[in-house]
């Protein structure tokens, strides 16, 4: 892996850590939105946006939802917006699949907490990058992930490959991850790794920690394989293009 530097240790309590890096050319091949499309690029970590108690409540939402399904392999996905849920080697729409039973799993308070957390993360990203939060839109996919050491059964389970969010998803301009469990306490491996030309920069997950970054090639990244335990996180991403915006999930 070459040289590895730790951007954020699990034991750190970071108010706001930000590293500015030059923007890639990825944004030039997409429509630009003045006052939103990244002109200042970089990556940040904060333990001061979401409390540990809130992270635990959100993790319980993920646990309840994923208890309805789960992948045969090591990576399971739950998307409250689209309803996508890993089930065996496939995905189902949990709203169609479970119908009214969904109200036994989730509450309005769960979705209200989700919205509140999303708004706070959005406001912090906007503040750090010097843009208006109203010019950013939630975009898909936004999803919970549960990772463990089970052998991969499909390509969806191979979460450890390096990738660029802007290339993979197109609509992403700003990516955030809210960690819902603790590195070395709840799981081993599973660190988030930025792959830079000179060295790798790692973020060690801790419950309530938010990692956020511009979504272009300046932030090529991967997640290490989880060796033991279970790693929970939620990916919440934003676009500058209102045509790619989605609403917050609602309990139908």
Automatic annotation (TrEMBL):
It comes from the Eukaryota. GO terms for cellular component: membrane. PROSITE patterns: FE2OG_OXY. One of its GO terms (molecular function) is iron ion binding. Residues 140-242 form the Fe2OG dioxygenase domain. The keyword Metal-binding applies. Keywords: Dioxygenase, Iron, Metal-binding, Oxidoreductase. SMART domains: P4Hc (SM00702). The keyword Metal-binding applies. Its cofactor is L-ascorbate. Pfam families: 2OG-FeII_Oxy_3. This is OGFD3 protein. It comes from Onychorhynchus coronatus (Royal flycatcher).
């Amino acid at each position: 892996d070459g040289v590895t530097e730790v951007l954020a240790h699990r034991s750190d309590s970071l108010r706001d850590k930000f590293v500015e890096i030059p923007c890639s050319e990825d944004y030039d091949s997409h429509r630009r939105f003045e006052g939103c499309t990244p002109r200042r690029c970089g990556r940040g970590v904060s333990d001061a946006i979401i409390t540990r108690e809130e992270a635990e409540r959100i993790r319980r939402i993920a646990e309840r939802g994923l208890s309805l399904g789960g992948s045969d392999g090591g990576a399971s996905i739950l998307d409250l917006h689209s309803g996508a849920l890993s089930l065996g080697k496939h995905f189902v729409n949990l709203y169609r699949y479970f119908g009214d039973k969904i109200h036994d799993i989730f509450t309005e308070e769960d979705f209200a907490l989700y919205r509140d957390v999303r708004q706070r993360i959005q406001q912090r990203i906007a503040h750090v990058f010097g843009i208006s939060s109203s010019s950013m839109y939630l975009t898909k996919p936004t999803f919970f992930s549960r990772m463990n050491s089970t052998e991969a059964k499909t390509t969806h389970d191979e979460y450890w490959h390096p990738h660029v969010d802007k290339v993979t998803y197109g609509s992403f301009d700003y990516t955030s991850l809210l960690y819902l469990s603790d590195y070395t306490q709840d799981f081993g491996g599973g660190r988030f790794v930025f792959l830079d030309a000179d060295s790798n920069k790692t973020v060690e997950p801790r419950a309530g920690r938010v990692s956020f970054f511009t979504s272009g090639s300046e932030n090529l990244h991967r997640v290490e394989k989880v060796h033991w335990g279970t790693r929970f996180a939620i990916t919440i991403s934003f676009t500058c293009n209102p045509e790619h915006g989605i609403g917050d999930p609602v309990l139908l």
